[in-house]
Amino acid sequence: MASSSSSSVPALAAITCLVGVCWVAIGPLRPESPPLWTLYPFEGLQNYTSGIIHHVRLTGLKPNTLYFYRCGDPSIPAMSEIYHFRTMPVSGPWSYPKRIAVVGDLGLTYNTTTTISHLTSNDPDLVLLIGDVTYANLYLTNGTGSDCYSCSFPHSPIQETYQPRWDYWGRFMENLISKVPIMVIEGNHEIEEQAENKTFVAYSSRFAFPSEESGSSSTFYYSFNAGGIHFIMLGAYIDFTRSGKQYKWLEQDLANVDRSTTPWLVATWHPPWYSTYHAHYREAECMRLEMEELLYSYGVDIVFNGHVHAYERSNRVYNYNLDPCGPVYLTVGDGGNREKMAVKYADEPGNCPEPSTTPDEYIGGICAKNFTSGPAAGKFCWDRQPDYSAFRESSFGHGILEVKNETWALWTWYRNQDADNKVGDQIYIVRQPDKCHVRQVLKSWIDDI
Ligand SMILES: *[C@@H]1O[C@H](CO)[C@@H](O)[C@H](O)[C@H]1NC(C)=O
Ligand SMILES: *[C@@H]1O[C@H](CO)[C@@H](O)[C@H](O)[C@H]1NC(C)=O
Ligand SMILES: *[C@@H]1O[C@H](CO)[C@@H](O)[C@H](O)[C@H]1NC(C)=O
Ligand SMILES: *[C@@H]1O[C@H](CO)[C@@H](O)[C@H](O)[C@H]1NC(C)=O
Ligand SMILES: *[C@@H]1O[C@H](CO)[C@@H](O)[C@H](O)[C@H]1NC(C)=O
Ligand SMILES: *[C@@H]1O[C@H](CO)[C@@H](O)[C@H](O)[C@H]1NC(C)=O
Ligand SMILES: [Fe+2]
Q: In the chain, how long is the greatest CA-to-CA distance?
């Protein structure tokens, strides 16, 4: 149950509360919003029509309160089971969700089921999904799997998708995300180009985003608070340049953050800037060059990324230099999808990619250049694990963030092959607001511009 943001809300929500427990009846749900279509007007391909997708905005909810709810139309009658969810705690420096689960690149495989089963038993209060959701684009429209992009789309000038994968994925995830709020940001597998250049249709229709609430009016980037944490969700597969809309929105959003209410500032986007694996090595360098300075100047504490199918934790870093005031970068593209795991490191002999092969067409041109300083000066890759890489391992798993107070947060990575309570990597991430000067813009000053 994500926070909802549809403006034409077709349903009514009746809320009654008694001693901290509330009941919500959502309904009647009537087909006033159109279903989602995916069209492939090419010989031999199938189109897809979804069921009706409803987004319902619940207003007036109280923080840190347990709500029970049912959805449906009692007049038919057709009502769902009774579900429940707990709202986030109020924003403030002493108020945090206990456990936030973070995972990327999930897909829907046996490994995904292991990840989600471990994640669920860690009892999270909030789930962050850092892009690459269902991998529906690795199937032909008749449902046959197809990992070979260049050779497997003989009947179609564009890459096909099999949209029922989204329905399978939704049914699989229902047990978790009917109870725990989930926030999602898009990955490359959500592009899903179809006829008339339509992209991101399933992603933008199936999830609800607090876009209006955070002033972005886009499903591709938005922000929200969860207790004393301000989360910024960024889009890597749309315009991120300094003159573009997303960047302008980001500047405004950062300027509006009040660190006395939300001391923690966490940013997420799909492709990592600081990954040392061979797969996708320095692929998002154009985005880094545009946005890193701005995020740094506002003292972003933690960055979550996916895309690389493995786990990696960085030391605090800025512009490839160790910097006590830079963010900690955590790559968690280890959800268990059907593509291969990343195992090779770019710093191993023979594994440094040729720079011209590294860009992704959606993330700009060739921006990655050889390093100009440090042990890898003049080269494209280090010859050992770079100093900004603190820990890396090719295993599937998920992470749990537990913010303890204004300055301490415990990060734990759990591996799928381990027992539930065994830890794969664990560290306290400690903020130093007194040492790291953070750009602050006074509210009254913003109101004037
Ligand atoms: C898919 O939709 C397109 C556009 O509406 C249509 O031209 C085509 O015939 C449809 N294909 C099938 C198999 O129904
Ligand atoms: C993925 O799941 C399969 C089937 O359960 C298992 O054999 C395999 O070890 C898992 N792979 C990883 C990397 O965890
Ligand atoms: C789906 O289409 C592909 C490509 O045309 C074909 O090779 C495959 O056999 C089809 N699968 C099914 C289940 O019809
Ligand atoms: C789709 O994109 C291509 C390439 O950018 C362009 O030539 C074409 O006109 C576009 N089609 C539509 C329907 O917008
Ligand atoms: C960049 O580094 C690579 C080795 O990592 C080297 O082969 C190449 O010549 C360098 N390019 C430039 C322009 O220095
Ligand atoms: C913050 O939490 C950490 C870890 O629980 C603890 O060691 C530290 O003393 C706390 N700091 C404050 C100011 O409460
Ligand atoms: Fe990806």
A: 71
Shortest CA distance to 102 belongs to which of 122, 86, 87? 122
Q: Is residue 184 part of a domain?
A: no
> Closest by alpha carbon to 415, among 99, 118, 113?
118
Rounded CA separation 340/309 (Å):
7
Ligand in closest contact with the CA of 48 = 1
Residue ranges of alpha helices (H) inside 183-231 are 201-206
Q: What are phi and psi of 388, to 5 degrees?
A: -80, -10
Q: Which of 54-63, 108-117, 142-151 has the highest mean pLDDT?
A: 108-117
Report the candidate in 336, 316, 278 with the shortest Cα–Cα distance to residue 103.
336
Tokens of 25: 């009846």
Q: What's the 368 CA to ligand 5 centre distance in angstroms?
A: 11
Which atom of ligand 5 is closest in space to residue 370's alpha carbon? 1
Domain containing residue 111? 92-131+221-448
User: Domain of 119: which CATH number?
Assistant: 3.60.21.10
Task: Tell me if 160 is assigned to some domain.
Answer: no
Q: Return the ∠ at Cα 58 (arms to 134 and 90), rounded to 5°.
A: 90
Residues in contact with 354: Cβ distance below 8 Å, sequence separation at least 6, in sequence order: none
Contacts 24+ apart (CB under 8 A), 360-363: 360/188, 360/271, 360/280, 360/283, 360/284, 362/188, 362/191, 362/236, 362/237, 363/236, 363/237, 363/271, 363/283, 363/284, 363/286, 363/287
Residue 49 lies in a domain: no
pLDDT classification of 438: cutoffs 50, 70, 90: confident
Alpha helices of 42-133 — where are they, by DSSP H?
110-121
Instruction: Output the pLDDT for position 2.
Output: 36
Please list the residues that pair with 345 across neighbouring strands.
277
Q: How far apart are alpha carbons 367 and 283 in whole angstroms?
A: 9
Among residues of the chain, what percentage have pLDDT more than 70? 92
Closest by alpha carbon to 207, among 138, 134, 143, 122?
134
Residue 224 pLDDT more than 80? yes
DSSP state of 167: H
In this predicted model, what pLDDT tens digit does every residue of 258-283 receive, in sequence order?
999 999 999 999 999 999 999 999 99
Pocket residue to mutate for ligand 6, from 264, 407, 408, most atoms within 8 A of Cβ: 408
For ligand 3, say whether the CB of 145 is within 6 Å of any of its atoms.
no
Number of domains in the chain: 1
> Does residue 228 sit within a domain?
yes
Q: Is the dihedral of CA 339, 340, 341, 345 positive or negative?
A: negative
Q: Which residues lie across from 302 on neighbouring strands?
A: 266, 328
Mean of pLDDT values over 353-380: 93
